[in-house]
Amino acid sequence: MTLAAEGAAAGGLGAEDLRALVGGLDGAMRELGRTHERLHAEVARLQSELAEANRQLSRSRELAALGEMAAGIAHEVRNPLASIELYAQMLVEDLADRPEQQSIGERIRRAVADLDAVVRDVLLFAREMRVRPEPVEAEVVVARAIAACDGILSRCRCAVHVHAAAEPMRLEADALLLAQAFANVVRNAAEIMAEHGTADPRIEIGIDARRVRLGAGQRVRCVIVSMRDHGPGIPPEVVHRMFNPFFTTRPTGTGLGLAIVQRIVDAHGGLIAVSSAPGGGALVEFRLPESVRPVRRGRSGRDSSMCREAAEQES
User: Fold this and answer.
1) Residue ranges of the domains in the chain?
2) What's the pLDDT tens digit per position in 117-126?
3) How far apart are alpha carbons 66 and 232 in whole angstroms?
């Protein structure tokens, strides 16, 4: 150290200067270490997002193929269904004087109507989702969805309470499609609470706005429509599958209602976050950009912005 100090002195640097130089180098090394850690974390995040995007692209292709196959089958099924309905109608008319036999024809007609509803769901899921955006208030769309569910809400004795922000939440959206998506979630929540005998069946709907991150993109201002029920909640293993086409935990239904909901929100460039609500029940949150963000995909595909994982990346 003495020799180093003498050398430094000979070069014009004193001991204090040397300590300052060493301290500066030490600080620079620590900053370089922190920068390296930040870059490493950023690389890991980008790699994760790339892997997720590749997974979603693969899934989109699979769902596109599934949608095309389902549409083909649905069209093939619809033709004989129309014939069965026609013959059942003729049977009902011919048996007008024999009520017991006529009731068989009526049961056939009801069964055909049920099958036709399944075919309509399949075709709706398979067709290309075309959004016709226009300026609309979120509260108006929510009111339209609730009105469409009047029948099931009355049968299930389910109350709906809407909590809207003081100022109107406006966005560009296809009001008819969004109302259908909201109505499907409300209807599903009401039916589940009725099936489980929920003591206080009600749905709380909140309408607000905030900036959120959509997928791997930047934060954008979104209208947030949250729907919370007071039913049994959603098991973790179901959360990851509930928007998959043809998946259902119920004894009836096609399992396409929520898949159609996701396609509608996807077509608006938004996302859905699903979780169990604090205190019980399920919480479904629609995050919709104030202006439509076009998304390119296969006919029945999903974009990565719709992932629940992406919703959880918000910070």
Assistant:
1) 1-127, 134-312
2) 778 777 777 7
3) 31
Q: How is residue 10 written in tokens?
A: 């000979």
Whole-number Cα distances in Å, 157 to 152, 162, 195, 228, 281 = 8, 17, 12, 16, 17
Residue 66: partners with Cβ closer than 8 Å, 6 or more residues away = 245, 300
Spatial distance between the Cα atoms of 193 and 203, rounded to a whole number of angstroms: 10
CA distance 203 to 51: 37
User: For 262-270, what is the mean pLDDT?
Assistant: 86
Q: Are 272 and 284 in contact (CB under 8 A)?
A: yes
If 0-12 CB within 10 Å is exposed, 13-18 middle and 19+ buried, where does residue 227 land?
buried
Nearby residues of 273 by Cβ (< 8 Å), 6 or more positions away: 284, 285, 287, 308, 311, 312
Q: What are 259's strand-pairing partners? A: none
Q: What is the pLDDT of residue 123?
A: 76
Q: How confident is the model at residue 235 (pLDDT cuts 50, 70, 90)?
A: confident
Report, as an integer, the average pLDDT of 12-27: 76
Tokens of 91: 């049977």
What is the predicted pLDDT for the residue at 137? 94
Give the pLDDT band (50/70/90) at residue 295: very low
Instruction: Determine whether domain 134-312 maps to CATH 3.30.565.10.
Output: yes
Whether the predicted model's global pTM rises above the 0.70 cut = no
Q: What are phi and psi for residue 270, nearest 5 degrees?
A: -100, -165
Those residues whose C-beta lies under 8 Å from the C-beta of residue 260, and which sit 6 or more positions away, are: 121, 124, 125, 180, 181, 184
- 246 to 122, 127, 250: CA distances (angstroms): 9, 16, 11
C-alpha 105/C-alpha 87 separation (Å) is 9
Three-class secondary structure of residue 165 per DSSP: coil
